[in-house]
Each structure stands twice: as structure tokens, then as C-alpha cells.
Amino acid sequence: MKSGKAKWLVLALMFVLTLGAGLSLQVTADAAVYSTVSTATMTKTAYHKKSTAGAIYNQAHNRKIASLKTYPNTTWYATQKATLKHGNSKGIYYYVANKSGSVKGWIWHGYLTKGKAPFGLKYAKNAIAMDYTTGKAVWSKSANTARPIASVSKLMTLYLVLQKVDGNASTWNQVVDTSSKGLIAMSKSSSCGGFLFQTGHSYTVRELYDAALLDSSNNAAIALGEWVAGSNAKFIQQMNAQAKSWNLGKASFVSASGLENSDLKAFGYAYGTANANMVSAKDVALIARHLIQDYPQILTDGAVGSKTVDGQLCYNYNNMLSGRKYYKASLNVDGLKTGYTPLAGYCFVGTGQQAGKHRVITVVLHDINEFTETQSLMKQAYSYSSMNA
């Protein structure tokens, strides 16, 4: 009986091995095999993707190098063409490479269309490049759609602070009331704070202005708003009134700092029914333009990399400034404001002036690569003749 069972086990194992071998042979027989019929050089020609379909392979087509959908705004330069045979069919393929030559290989010509790729930003959900001189957009992406803007909101707050200071040196030295238990608690919060408010200590308008601009301190921004208008609620009403006076139809504020009400309620500073400030990229750019026009000192103040304020280091997270990772001398960036909350994502308002060009203001909202995409956006803006000084 045992020997019979063993016999059947051996037969079953042989069947499985035979079946497995058959499957293996079948896969090998049906595997894609491309052979080269002819190859010729061609004049270097620019192409870009026709749609999201298609991929770049090695010439034997047994290794994928890149999918076109992951390179939505790339220009591919073709230098060779070949006729490749696959089974009974033949097709014309181009040997292409991106500008840097870091990605190259063969692709069926039908996946491409002649000409350089139109400019675009891959990550920013909303963006704009504005000519500061004319106030006209030179490039935009969903720029009229309002969305949360995090600490970029402080540009409006700082405008109203500078409006009240009105160049008066003595006003800068006025002491701001920072005794609120909510603001003191916020200043100690690792996620919502920034510049520490010490109980029984006094801070001037200038100190809180630097903390709000450079360190993006939320408690400093709220305290300044209360100093300007008398209360947090009145200041937010003033923010909205200012937006209305500028005809910003896609701007609505509920926060002086840019924090959402879902965070502010823990400190007693929630206001209104909406959760967040909702502003379009275009309206953010217009706020920045008004700020620079009326109070150009914001460029000098905003270009400071770091500053010790009342014994605390205020670090400017604008990494496009001189000496920082994303600095480019040709772009000459001298401002303006970063922002982040999980809801708003990474946001950045940049500005600079290239030699012989008008000043540019750029806005990218909810952009995980806010600095590299701002670099690209500024370069694109300067490529338009309308930006010439």
C-alpha cells in the first residue's frame, strides 16, 4: 500500500514538472522579440509626448527605461531612426534622449509629436507667474481657483501692519500685547507655534514683524493683527475688506496667520464658518504686488536669511535666497514667503528681477517641489519678450 502511494506521488510530481516545463517553454516562445531591420542617423529633431501612452525601451525591447506619463513636460531629441520587426509586424522607432541625456532609448514614433514640449509644472496644483510692472499673468495653471494657502496668508497681515506703521519709527517700537494664554500656548506648540512668547515679557511691533516674516510665527502674526485692529475678529474683517478694495474675487480670510480653524480652535482663535483661508494663486500674486509696490522695504526685510530677535533665532525658510540650496544668481530672488499646512501643502511666493527684465512674482500652491518648480517658472516667465525692461 505504501509503495502504491509512493508510485502515485512520483507520477504526480513528474506531471507537475512536465506541466511546469511546458509553461516555461510557452512563455519563452511567446516572449517579445524585436530585431533590427535597418538603422539610420537623422537630423536632431525635438519631439514631445502625444498622450500619456508609450514608453522608452532599449533597442532589444527587453528592458523598459521610462514611461512617457512620468515625463509630462519633457522635450525628447531624436538622433536616429530604425525599423524594428516584432513577429510579423514592422515599425519605425526613434532613438531619443532628454536635454541632459540622463534618459535615452528607443520609442515607437507614433507616441511622439514634433516640436518642443509646452511648458508645465508637474506638482503645483495652482500656479502663476506675474509681470510685476504690468500686473499681467505671463503663465498660469488653475490660477483662478481658490484654495488653502497656509502662511502665505501672512502677506496680507504684513501689508496691514506696514500700513499702520506708515514709516513711523516710533510706531515700530510700540509694545504689542502678547499676554493672551492662547497665544502663549500656541507659541509653545511644536506644530503651530514658532516665536516663543514668555509670560510677563514684552515684544515690540518690529520684533513680531520679523518673527512673522522670517520665522513665519503664527502667534506673532495673530498678535500683530490684534494690535492693528483691536481684536482678532476685527482684523480678519479688515483683511477681507482690503481684499475687496483690491477686487480680489477669489480671496476669503478666516485667519491672520494661515493656520486652519481646526488648529486655531484649541487656542481660542477660531473665526468664521470656513476652515481655512481660501485664495487663488492670482489673488496671492496681486497681494504680493500691492505689498511690494506700497512697501518696497519688504524685499530688503524678506531677503534676510536669519536674524536673532530678542534672543531667539528667526530662520527664513526661503531656500532660493543667496547662499541657500536653490539659489540661482541669474534669477536674483529677494523674497518673499513660504507656507505649509497638511491641508494646503507646500506653498511659495517668490519674486526677483533678472538683469534687463521686469520683476517677476511667482506663486505655487500645494507643490511638493516648490523651489525647483519656482526656478522653472521664473525661467519660463523671463523667456517671454513682454518681460523685457
From TrEMBL:
<keyword id="KW-0378">Hydrolase</keyword>
<keyword id="KW-0732">Signal</keyword>
<dbReference type="InterPro" id="IPR012338">
    <property type="entry name" value="Beta-lactam/transpept-like"/>
</dbReference>
<dbReference type="InterPro" id="IPR001967">
    <property type="entry name" value="Peptidase_S11_N"/>
</dbReference>
<dbReference type="GO" id="GO:0016787">
    <property type="term" value="F:hydrolase activity"/>
</dbReference>
<keyword id="KW-0133">Cell shape</keyword>
<dbReference type="Pfam" id="PF00768">
    <property type="entry name" value="Peptidase_S11"/>
</dbReference>
<feature type="signal peptide">
    <location>
        <begin position="1"/>
        <end position="29"/>
    </location>
</feature>
<protein>
    <submittedName>
        <fullName>Serine hydrolase</fullName>
    </submittedName>
</protein>
<comment type="similarity">
    <text>Belongs to the peptidase S11 family.</text>
</comment>
<feature type="domain" description="Peptidase S11 D-alanyl-D-alanine carboxypeptidase A N-terminal">
    <location>
        <begin position="124"/>
        <end position="367"/>
    </location>
</feature>
<keyword id="KW-0573">Peptidoglycan synthesis</keyword>
<keyword id="KW-0961">Cell wall biogenesis/degradation</keyword>
<dbReference type="InterPro" id="IPR018044">
    <property type="entry name" value="Peptidase_S11"/>
</dbReference>
